Amino acid sequence: MPELLDGLRILVLEDEFLIAMDVEQLCRDHGAADVTIVRELGEIDGEALPARFDAAVVDLMLGDVSTLDFAARLRREGIPFVFASGYSDSDEVKDAFPDIQLVTKPYSGDDLIEAVAMACGRAKGA
Q1: Which residues of 86-121 are buried (b: 16+ CB within 10 A; e: fewer)?
Q2: CA 112 to chain CA centroid, nearest Å
Q3: Is the predicted pLDDT of residue 119 greater than 70, yes or no?
């Protein structure tokens, strides 16, 4: 049986080092071909995202910088993504991204992987 993220190239926007490393390992354990951790949006400004990534895990805040504009860019460029954040009650997120799943921290690895797989059309409920 193929892994849920088999062959995918995953972008992880996460500023907390240990969380980013855990997410990277989870993705690799579930078949991701490549995982790129980005801790600041400036690291990927101007890059052609669809050429590099198949899906993304997006923290709502990187330090004190909102990632909502970047999430809108992901949506425009057709890259499936999920939010993974400790900010679970943001009406702004629910209003702007009603179709995007928010996995709240602390989350289980299975919940996160299932959410990414669903966003990519690879799991039940997709």
Answers
A1: eeeebeebeeebeebbbbeeebeeeebbbbbbbbbe
A2: 9
A3: yes
State which amino acid sits at residue 124. Answer: K
Q: How far is CA 36 from CA 64, 70, 97, in A?
A: 21, 16, 23
- Amino acid occupying residue 103: V
Distance in angstroms (rounded) separating the CA atoms of residues 114 and 88: 18
With contact defined as beta carbons under 8 Å apart, do 20 and 39 qualify?
Answer: yes
Peptide linkage before 2 cis (omega within 30 of 0): no
User: pLDDT band at 46, cuts 50/70/90?
Assistant: confident
Q: Which of 12-21, 24-33, 46-55, 108-117 has the lowest mean pLDDT?
A: 46-55
In whole angstroms, give the CA distance from residue 44 to residue 90. Answer: 25
Q: State the Cα–Cα distance between residues 24 and 95, nearest whole angstrom.
A: 29
Instruction: Look at the pTM and tell me if it is higher than 0.85.
Output: yes
Strands (DSSP E) found in 5-126? 9-13, 34-38, 55-58, 61-62, 65-66, 81-85, 102-104
State mean pLDDT over 24-33. Answer: 96
